[in-house]
Design a protein that fits this description.
Length: 255
């Protein structure tokens, strides 16, 4: 056994222990929720009252302060979900699979929000709420992957089998994330390119500031909701195990 695992309190792997993870999650949730509220209020104020009117799109561009963070989070959370599902598949750790399950509803919400706000943005700029654009279509597929992951988990009674099946789907579906990101470069699409590049941002500083504040607000919200969801799921499983009796509890394994 290495020193990183032998010494208590050292190394990241100790946070995989339920006795360490759940108390930490309980402490993080209220802080992340508070940060999310403060940043969201600040970001919306900057976006709708401080940022200037766009010279080409007018006021309708302000949807980016919700649309862009939601789209970014939808892609990132899918990778997080696939990561935890893969860890659970390889190491057979229940907590990792529970984390993947907790991420899925929030990721689906972000994908839906990105599509919904994109439709409102597309109507005045493209003349239609929906077009079969490469980025829009691949983002719709991302939403279906989230929903498919959740449906597959719910359809299988055995938790371990459900975890393995969901992990395979999540890992295969991860290939869609780079397709979404690079779609505007690979194909001739109506969707505009990235506004933030390594060479700099193609928007005014107040616009960029408001958008980044909203991105961090979405981050904090996602962390708070995901940790809450996995903690609630853990308590429900412990309560169900207690109702089944001590013998059933001895057969199961800790996450």
């Amino acid at each position: 056994m290495s020193s990183a695992t032998a010494q208590p309190g050292f190394g990241l792997f100790r946070y995989a222990a339920p006795a360490v993870f759940y108390p930490l999650a309980g402490r993080l949730v209220p802080w992340c929720a508070g940060v999310a509220i403060v940043l969201a209020l600040w970001g919306l104020y900057l976006g709708f009252f401080v940022a200037p009117t766009d010279a080409q799109q007018g006021e309708v561009y302000r949807v980016i302060f919700i649309h862009v963070p939601a789209a970014w989070m939808a892609m990132f959370l899918y990778l997080v979900m696939a990561f935890w599902a893969g860890i659970g598949l390889v190491f057979n750790t229940r907590l990792s699979s529970m984390m993947a399950q907790a991420v899925a509803p929030t990721g689906a919400l972000m994908a839906f929000l990105a599509l919904w706000t994109g439709a409102f943005w597309g109507r005045p700029t493209w003349g239609a709420y929906w077009v079969w654009d490469a980025r829009l279509t691949s983002t719709l597929l991302l939403l279906f992957l989230y929903l498919g992951f959740m449906a597959l988990q719910a359809a299988i009674d055995d938790p371990r089998r459900a975890d393995r099946a969901g992990a395979v789907l999540a890992l295969v579906g991860a290939i869609n994330v780079p397709i979404i990101y690079f779609s505007v470069k690979w194909w001739n699409t109506l969707h505009q390119g990235a506004s933030i590049r390594p060479s700099g941002a193609s928007m005014a500083t107040p616009m960029l500031t408001a958008m980044l504040v909203m991105v961090f607000a979405f981050w904090a919200y996602a962390i708070a909701v995901i940790l809450t969801r996995v903690s609630v799921r853990r308590r429900r499983e412990r309560a169900a195990a207690a109702l089944r009796g001590p013998s059933a509890g001895r057969k199961g394994s800790n996450p």
